[in-house]
Design goal:
It is a single chain. By secondary structure, this protein is an alpha/beta fold. The chain contains 39 helices and 44 strands. The strands form 9 sheets. Strands 16, 19, 22, 23, 24, 25, 26, 27 and 28 form a 9-stranded mixed β-sheet that branches. Strands 36-35-34-37-38-42-39-44-43 form a 9-stranded mixed β-sheet, sandwiched between helices. An 8-stranded mixed β-sheet has the order 7-6-8-9-10-13-14-15, sandwiched between helices. The termini are far apart.
Length: 1314
Amino acid sequence: MKLRYFLLFFTFVSFSLTQNPDFINVGLLYNTESATAILSFERAIEDINTNDKLLPESKLRPVPVDVGSINGNPANATQSLCQLLSNQDVIAIIGPFSSAQVKFCSYILGKIGVPMISPTAVDPYHNPIWAPTLVKLIPNNAVQAAAIMDLCQYYRWNRISIVSTTDEYGMTLREAILNEIRERELHLITDVKIIYGIKKEYLAESIKKSWIDELLNATTRVTLLLTNSYYADLVLEAADEFGMIDSSFAWVAASAISETLVYLYDGEGKMKPQYDGMIGLSPYLDTTGRIYQRLDAAYTEAGHIGVNPIDGLIYDAVYLLGHSLDKIYRNGEFDVTNYDGGCYSDEGTWELGVEIFNQFTISNYVGIAGYRQTWPNGEPDRITQRYNVVNYRTIRNQEVRKIGNWENSEEDKIRIEERARWHSDRVEVPSDNPLLSNVALKLGVLEDKPFIIYNYTKYGYSSCREMMAEEKLTNQDKCYMGVSIDIIKRLREKLKFDYIFIESPDNKFGNQVNGKWNGLINEIYQKRLDVGVVGFGTSHTREKVVNFGISFYPGGVRMASSKSITKKDQFFFLKPFSAGVWYTILVGIVFFFVIVLLFDKFSPYGHAGGVVYKCKICSCPRCTSLLSRGIRDRICPFEEDHELKHQMGIMSIPNALWLSICSFLTVAPADGIPKNWSGRIIISIWWLVCLVMVSMYTANLAAFLTVSRMGVDISTAEELVNQKDYLFGTVEGSITENLLRYSENEVLNKVYQRSNSTVTYDEAVSRMKIGKNYIFLYGVGPLDFTTSESCDIGLIGDVLMDFGYAFAFQQKSPYLEVFNQEMLILQERGAIKDLWHKYVKGNCEDVSFDAEADSLEASSLMGLLYLCLPLLALAVIVFLLEVFFSPKKRARGKAGDVHTSKGIGELMRAQATVPEPDAAVQNMDEESVALTTTATFPQITLPDSQLDGTYEVPRNNPPSSLEYVSPDIQQLGPSDSVYEMEKSLTYPASENQAHVAILTDASAIGWGAVNLYTKKNVRGYWNEAERRLPGHILETKAVYWALKIYCKYQSNVHMQINLDNMKAVDIINGKAASWETEPARFIKRKIWELALQNNITFTAQFLDGSKSITANLQSRLPFDNTDWGFSPGLYDKICRNFGVTPEVDLFATMHTSKCPLFVSKAEDPKSFAVNAFKQKWDNWDCVYCFPPMSDKIISRVVRKIMSSKCKVLLIVPWWVKSSWFKQLKIVMVAEPFSLGRGLVLKHPHDQRLSHPLQVRLKLGAALCRGRTNLPPHITEPITETLSDKPEEVHQENDLNAIKNISGAERVVNKDKGV
C-alpha cells in the first residue's frame, strides 16, 4: 500500500516537472582558443540565479560545447550545434566566435526560431532575413573600419599598408578599410593577403619572408593588421624575424586580435616582444565597473592572465538573455520553456524564440560593456557603437592597456586619454614617411648629356660593372658623371642616403606603346626603381604613372641642324614681311577699294553720286515719265550726255580697285581720284598706310641683304611640315616624341607622323653632321650641350613646345617631398645653375640662327591701326553730312525714292507694288503669285503667369550641337574654363537662394523628372544612339535635360537633385573615380556650365528608386508615337524644289527637328517654344510644318496658315476627301509635289520601327501662304465648296493623277482644280 502511494507521488512530481521545468538551459558554443569563456559564462548564470528579482521560479543552467578551433571548418560548429539541440533542450545559444561559424549557425537557428547571441560577429553583409533571431553585441566591420581610420588620422598617418586574411572577417574588414581610404583620399602603399587556413607548422620561411619583403619594398611604415589573433601572431613573428619590429614602424591591430589573449603570451605568461608598441582597437569594456571588477577577481583566483574582451561580452550576453526572459515571464503571455526540437523541426518557427529576440531589441541595460541598446535588426545602436583604444606593452606592465576610446555618437569620435608607448617604450609617434638615413635608393639612369654621361666609355669599358671589376672600384661614382649625378651627390651629403645606379634595360626614357610603358618610366611604375635621375621632360601622359619632382631646369623642344647648309630662296624678297603682314596688306587694298567705291556712289558730291542726284532733280518730260512709270529697263535719262556718262565711270569698280593697288605701289593712276571730301579723306588714309609700309619694307629688305645668314631657313613647325628638302625626326621613346604624338596641335601631330626618328641621341647627332640634310627635334638641354661641343651644329627657330626637366618618382613616393625641399634650396643658392655651366660651357659663338628673326610681324602694325581709326571715323562723319545735309539732297524730293544699290544701269528702277492675285489663286496652272513680304525675327518673352515653354532666343543662334552626347564623345577634349567652373560650383547654397528638390530617373525608353517646388513633370525619350550608352551616363544626361528645362523658369536657386544611380551622383558632385569616362566628364561640365549661366548651385544625392515614383513613371512612359521623320536628304530636295529655306520647325522634337530652331508640343530641352498654335508665325519669313497625321490638327494648321503672311512649307497626307484639303488649295502659292507612296518614315527611338501606314500612306509637299484680302467666310472652316459655283466631284480623289516632272511628282487633279 505504501509503495502504491509512493509511485503515485513520484508520477505527480514528474508530471509537474515536465510542465514547468525549474531549469532553463542556455547553450554556449565556444572555441578551443577561448576556453576561459566558460568561467565568464558560468559566473554570469550564477549571478542571475542568485538574483531573486530575476526569474524567481526558474533557474538558468549552462550547457557549454566546444566547437573546435576558431580557424576550423564552419561545418564543425553547425554539427556541434545540431548535436546539442538533439541531446539537450535549450532556450537560446550564445556564440560561436568566428564570423563564418556565426553565419552558418545563425541561418539554422533563424529557420527554427531559436534566439542566438553572438559576442563577436562583425560581418556587415550578414543577411538579417535569413537570420531573424541573431543579436550582435559589437559593431560590424564597416564601423570598425571607420574607427581604425580615425585612429590613423589622429596620428596623421596618410601612407598605409594592409595585411589581411582571406576569411570573411579579413575580407569584409579589408573592403571597408579600402572604402574609407578612398573617401578620405589617403594613400594605400601595398595590400598583402594571407591565405586563410594555413597552419604554423606547415608555413615555410619563404612565405613569411615574402609578406615582409612586400611591405619593406613598398617603404611601409604604418601597417594595419586585419586578422584574428592566430594570424596576427604569425605575421608579427615574421616581422620580428625580418626587421620590421622597431620604433620606426607602427602596427595597428584590429579588434579580433585583442579579443583572445592566448596567442599574445608565451609559456611563462609574458607578452611576446613582437607585440611591444602596437596599438589597436578592442571591444568596449567598462573596466572600472563593479561587474568587471568582480569578474576580474574570479579570473585571477582561477589563475588566468585576465579577463579577455570576449569573456566580458559573454557575460553581457547571458545578462541580456536573463533580463529578456524575466520580462517575458512577468508579461505572462508565454511559458518560459526550453526548445525541445532539433535542427530540422517541422513544427515551424518557435514563437517563444521570436518573442525572446523581440525583447532583445527593446531591452536597455548596463553591463560590462556599459549601456547597451540594440536596433531591430539585431545590430548595436549607434550610441552604443564603441571601441577601446588599446596599447600593447611588454616593457613595463606586460598588458594590453586602454589609452582612450572611440564612440560613434560623439562629434570628436576618438579621444586619447593617455600617450601611447611605442616600441622600446618610445613616446615619439612613428612617421608614415620613411627616413632616408641608411636607405639604399635604386636610381635609374640613361645617357642623356649633360644630365647623365657614361664616363666608363671614356676608359674603353662597355659597362660600369666591367669597369668596377677591372679597376676594383667599390662604388659607381667613377662610372657616371653629369648634372644629375652631381645633384645626387650633393643630396646624399645632406640626406645621408646610399644609392645604386641602374641603367635602362631597353635604353629608352619611357614612352607608351600599344598601351604599355617602356624604358625607365616603366621601371619606376613597376617599382623596380625608386627614382629616375635623368633629365625627364615632364608631360601629362607620364604623370599618369609616375610623379615628377620640381623642375630644376627649364626645357622645351627645339630644332637643330648642320650650320654648313646653304640654300637659295627664290622668294627672298618676301622675307622682310611675315605672312601675317602680307595678308594684312591684301585686306587693306580690298577694304579701301570698297570704301572709296561706296562713298563715291552714294555721296552727292561723288562722280557717280552726282549723276544720280542730277537725275532725281531733272524736270524734263522724259525723266518725269520714266520716274513715274517705274520702268525696269536699263535706260539712263542722261545716256546721251557723254560728259555725264564719263563722269559716272571715273570711279567704277575697275578704276577704284586700280586706284587702291597703284597707291600701294606709289604710282598715281591716270583715271582720277575721288572728288568728294569723304572719299579724299579715305584715300589720304590709305596713302599714309602705304607710305609707312613701303618705308618699312625698304628698310627690312636692306637689312636682309646686308646680313649674311647661314643655315636652314626654317623656324616654325608649319614650315618644317610644308618643306620637302629636309628629313626630320627625334629619338624614339623620348619626351619630344611623346609631346609631338599627343599634342592637340595638328601641325605638331603631322611632325610626329612624318618623323624619321633614330634609336639613340648619338645617332641623330651623327646624322646631322654627315648627311647635312637632317633636322633634329629634341629637348633644349641636350641640344645646348651638343651645340657647345660641336660648333658645326646650330639651333633653329624658337621653342616649339615648353616643358621642364625633373626627376621621376614612384606615385606618392615618400622621398618626393624631401628631394623637392633640398633641390629648392640648391636652386635658390644657384648651385644647379653652376652645375649646368660646368658641363655646358658655350665654347662656340652664335650657336643659334633664325631666318625670320627680323621679319616684321602683324602685331607691329597695331599703332598704325590706332592712328587710322579716328581718321576713318572722320571720313564716315563727312560722308553722312554729304548724304543727309547737302543742298543737293534737299532738292531730290520730287522724284521719290529710287534704289541705287545695283549699279548705274538700274538708277531709274523704282519699287513696284505687285497686285494681289485673284483668279490665279484658284487655278494653279497659271503663273504663281510672287511673294514680297519681309519678316523680322522677334524677341519672344513669356509672362510670369504662363508656363508654355517660350523664352527669348537670338536669331541664327541655334542650340549647340555639342549638347548631344554620342557614343564617340571621347574625341572631344576638355575645356580649360571648366576647371575654373568646378571651383565656383562646389560651395553650398547661399541664404538668399530658394531650395528646389528635383527627382530624376532614366530607363531604357527615356528619361523623366519632377520639380517638387513647381510640381512640374517633364519627360523625353532616347534616340537609338543614346540607348546604347551605359546606365550611369543616361542617368547623368537625364539630369542635364531636366535642368535645361527647369532653368528656363528658375534661376538663383539651390537645386537638390535626387537620383537612383550612385555613379551618376559621384559624377555630378565631381568625385573623380577610375570608371569616370570622357562622356561622363563632358556631361558633368555641361551641367556645371548651365548652372553657372543661371546662377544655380546644386547638390546630387542618392535616392532609392522606389521612393521616386513620379520620375520613374515619366521615364518609362511609351515614347511619342507621332514623332516620325524622314531622311534629311529628302528635306533638302524639297527645299531646293521650292527655293525656300525654313527658319523654324513648328512640329518637332530635338530628335527630328529639321531646322536650328523648333517648336515642340511638350517641354523639350532644346526647343525655344512650346505649342506651335500659340506662336505668331509671321515672325518668320518661312516656316516648316510636318504636323501629326490627324484631320483635326491639320485643319487647325491650314486655318493658321490662312491667318498668317509667312511662307509655310507643309508636309501632309494627300487626303483629297478631307475638308481641310479644299482650304489647302486656297493658300498654296506653288504647284505641290508628291513624295510618293511608301515613303520611309523612321522613329528616332528605334530605327527598326516604321510607320504602321507606311505602305499605303501618300504624302505631299506644298508651299503655302495666307491671304490678307480673303472674304470673312473664306477664313472660316470650309466644308463643301470653294467658290460660288459648285465643284464637280473628283473622279478618284487620290494621287493617281500625279505625274513625274524632272525627278519629282507634281500634283495635277484631273478636274483642273489644282
